[in-house]
Amino acid sequence: QTSVSLAQTLRAAVTVAVLCVTFLGRFYQSLKDNDIEFTPASIEKELLKSCKEAKGKENRLCYYVGATSDAATKIINEVSKPMSHHIPVEKICEKLKKKDSQICELKYGELSNSMLKLLSPEFCSEVASLIRLQNLGCSP
Length: 140
Hints:
The protein has helices at residues 2-13, 18-33, 40-53, 56-65, 77-84, 89-99, 102-105, 113-117, 121-135.
């Protein structure tokens, strides 16, 4: 029952960076599933392909990192280089947020259980700690 209440709490409270973590988590898994070589160049190539198919807010994320044809900036290497070293997607998203604060504004409406499964236990634990602090009236 604890995992259910944590899932409900996460669904209600996690907004910032979940879209980034979920999209890049799915992307990372697809690289592994398709035996893609983990080099920055091959990751960039695959990210461009994935972003061509991305819709809605995920397409907007692609735009912000420079993985769409109409992107104004190119920080795609901020994804490809750390991912080539298997850096967790949560850490990649943290760095992306520092590069472009608009990434923080991207969020899904309602989180599904499948989205929550893509989040690492460490990330979920961090969020749960922040939620507890906020519930106590403290700011992180």
